[in-house]
């Protein structure tokens, strides 16, 4: 029998080390939980987290009216290279499209740097006699007899999936679809996929790479979804569930199994979606989303509550041409290892100690000093984490820091502070990448810091970059799970077009109507509130890349929209150049009703430090008050220096800063001068 009298919403976000659970009631009451992930069978941790969280709040599976899930299964499958056995059939003469790739190089001056190996072995690729031109006209008909003979060369490899990717098929997929039918009938592989059904856009390498990634992760994702659905059914969950996709929207399990490449960046998107929703709530115009984990930091720019998006991302160095939140990831996290370069200079990252063995202070056999060890040595971290569930060996970290610091002629404290200054500079470069390099003034931006380690670094970064403020959400260490609770259902459609005249632009109306009709057939609940956003990819003729902008049927207005975006992105517009549109896009979303934010208005603003701890700040030890964030109410103000601890994270406030809590438990850290003036 349920002890809970309200419907419950649950989100579970699976990471490589921990699985995070957020469960929220209709009145906004939120409970969070962390448990170890089970990489060999990720669904086990999800089911255990679901049951454990419900027990903690006195609920039952029948109380759940929303269940959403963020997964790293597709991501890890590509990174670890343990996906499906896949083959490919391509146009004659294009067997090496994945190996040749394009002219961009990972590091043009490093002779030892090489591109990642393609996901499809060359011996698993065969060619078909056929050819389309760039307009979709058939130059050479598909030789079906020859194809039936050629594909027999693939049978011996016992392939899981075969991809069919023909030149210019994004304009006319007739040959791709027919070839896929023939291969399926021959039983060459368990699954056959036409590349155009995954990504129907120009650029053969990127389109083929996307189709290869989709095929590579498909069996693993399908198996995972099947296992998870069985577990949810056995647990008694009655509501339908959704999975997070790279674009920041939700997919049904069926759609995720059919288009698994859309979930490849699922783990990165949740926190950005949460930060975007919080930015809207706080009415902030420019926010940098800043998510620090154990190995990496994920950074994204949010403008007016909408995160920047990209249509061309990468996973493990492989192009992925699908919509995704535009996240810049750097190798800097709590587990980043400190080392000395050939010139004796102090460097930190990108190599990481990970969670196992982890930092020296984790007592798991770690041998390398990390950012977490530096925080422990200078006192920002105490001797325990996760509310006392995890002990830190601070003396061991100090001994190692003392010994290592002798190479630099520095004390343990100065060495640790140096490690933090280096990692701060690395993170600052990452933030500039998504802001200053896009023409955005950081002095007008707020930093939304979350992840387990984000609140430890936010104060230093805001000061380094002269940002307006740092905002710490209520549960920063579980932010990705909390963020996806309010993510919308989303479908993306794209059609390649050739538009460079006013008449051709007006003809796009029919194209958008066709995509909208397609969307109507795909929606599980077409009766629900649905938003349709029509977009186009436009460029000046002769340019290699496009800008995605809103569609307008009037040629003059469309040109103004494009040129304004062009000037914002590149600093100029060219009134003499001819504009062309190459892709029409339709973004279909079904927003969910946002849950009520939990209020702390009833909690007193007065707080008292639970204890004090020596913290090394700017070259000297200081006696710093330690606060419990659970005691913070509306309008609570804390002057720095201070440390604020909570179950899932630790917050550091510099001496020249102060922090003020708001009604909904968002902590705003500003310079003490700014706080006084406001």
TrEMBL record:
Pinpoint the Hydantoinase/oxoprolinase N-terminal domain residues. Answer: 10-186
Positions of the Acetophenone carboxylase-like C-terminal domain: 561-671
User: What's the protein here called?
Assistant: Hydantoinase
In this record, what's one Pfam family?
A: Hydant_A_N
* Positions of the Hydantoinase A/oxoprolinase domain: 207-492
List GO BP terms, alphabetically: glutathione metabolic process
What is the organism field in this record? Enteractinococcus helveticum
PANTHER family xref list: 5-OXOPROLINASE RELATED (PTHR11365), HYPOTHETICAL 5-OXOPROLINASE (EUROFUNG)-RELATED (PTHR11365:SF23)
The protein's matches in InterPro entries, at most eight in alphabetical order, are given as: ACX-like_C, ATPase_NBD, Hydant_A_N, Hydantoinase_A, Oxoprolinase-like
């Amino acid at each position: 029998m349920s002890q809970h009298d309200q419907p419950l919403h649950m989100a579970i976000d699976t990471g490589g080390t921990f699985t995070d659970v957020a469960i929220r009631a209709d009145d906004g009451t939120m409970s969070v939980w962390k448990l170890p992930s089970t990489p060999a069978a990720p669904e086990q941790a999800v089911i255990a987290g679901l049951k454990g969280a419900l027990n903690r709040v006195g609920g039952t599976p029948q109380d759940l009216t929303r269940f959403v899930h963020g997964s790293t299964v597709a991501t890890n499958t590509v990174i670890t290279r343990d996906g499906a056995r896949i083959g490919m059939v391509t146009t004659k003469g294009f067997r090496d499209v994945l190996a040749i790739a394009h002219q961009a190089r990972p590091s043009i001056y490093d002779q030892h740097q090489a591109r990642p190996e393609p996901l499809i072995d060359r011996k698993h690729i065969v060619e078909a006699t056929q050819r389309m031109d760039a307009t979709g006209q058939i130059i050479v008909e598909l030789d079906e007899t020859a194809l039936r003979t050629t594909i027999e060369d693939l049978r011996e490899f016992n392939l899981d999936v075969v991809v069919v990717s023909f030149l210019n098929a994004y304009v006319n997929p007739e040959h791709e679809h027919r070839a896929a039918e023939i291969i399926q009938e021959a039983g060459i592989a368990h699954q056959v996929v036409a590349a155009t059904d995954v990504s129907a856009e120009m650029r053969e390498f990127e389109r083929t790479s996307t189709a290869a990634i989709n095929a590579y992760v498909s069996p693993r994702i399908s198996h995972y979804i099947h296992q998870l659905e069985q577990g949810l059914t056995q647990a008694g969950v009655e509501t339908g569930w959704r999975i997070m996709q790279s674009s920041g929207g939700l997919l049904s399990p069926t759609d995720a199994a059919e288009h698994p490449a859309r979930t490849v960046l699922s783990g990165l998107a949740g926190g950005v979606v949460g930060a975007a929703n919080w930015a809207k709530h706080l009415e902030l115009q420019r926010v940098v989303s800043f998510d620090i984990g154990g190995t990496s930091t994920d950074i994204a720019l949010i403008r007016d509550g909408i995160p920047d998006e990209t249509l061309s991302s990468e996973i493990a160095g492989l192009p992925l041409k699908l919509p995704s939140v535009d996240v810049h990831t750097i190798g800097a996290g709590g587990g980043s290892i400190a080392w000395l370069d050939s010139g004796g200079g102090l460097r930190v990252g990108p190599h990481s100690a990970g969670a196992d063995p982890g930092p020296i202070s984790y007592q798991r056999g770690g041998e390398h000093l990390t950012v977490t060890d530096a925080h422990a040595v200078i006192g920002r971290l105490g001797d325990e984490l996760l509310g006392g569930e995890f002990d830190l060996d601070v003396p061991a970290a100090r001994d190692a820091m003392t010994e290592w610091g002798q190479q630099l002629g520095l004390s343990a404290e100065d060495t640790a502070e140096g490690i933090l200054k280096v990692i701060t500079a690395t993170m600052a470069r990452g933030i500039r990448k998504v802001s200053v390099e896009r023409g955005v003034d950081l002095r007008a931006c707020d930093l939304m810091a979350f992840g387990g380690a984000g609140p430890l670094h936010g104060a230093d970064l805001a000061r380094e970059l002269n940002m307006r403020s740092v905002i710490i959400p209520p549960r920063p260490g579980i932010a990705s799970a909390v963020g996806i609770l309010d993510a919308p259902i989303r479908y993306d459609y794209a059609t390649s077009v050739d538009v460079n005249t006013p008449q051709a632009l007006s003809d796009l109306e029919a194209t958008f109507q066709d995509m909208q009709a397609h969307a109507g057939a795909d929606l599980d609940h077409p009766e629900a509130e649905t938003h349709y956003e029509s977009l186009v990819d436009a460029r000046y003729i002769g340019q290699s890349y496009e800008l995605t902008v809103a569609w307008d049927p009037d040629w003059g207005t469309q040109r103004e929209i494009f040129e304004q975006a062009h000037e914002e992105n590149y600093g100029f517009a060219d009134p003499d150049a001819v504009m062309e549109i190459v892709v029409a896009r339709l973004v279909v979303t079904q927003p969910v009703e946002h849950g009520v934010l939990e209020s702390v208005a009833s909690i007193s603003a007065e707080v008292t430090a639970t204890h004090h701890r020596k913290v090394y700040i700017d070259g000297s030890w200081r006696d710093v008050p330690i606060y419990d964030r659970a005691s913070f109410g509306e309008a609570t103000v804390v002057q720095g220096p201070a440390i604020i601890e909570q179950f899932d994270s630790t917050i550091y406030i510099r001496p020249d800063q102060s922090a003020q809590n708001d009604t909904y438990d968002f902590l705003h850290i500003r310079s003490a001068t700014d706080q006084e003036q406001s």
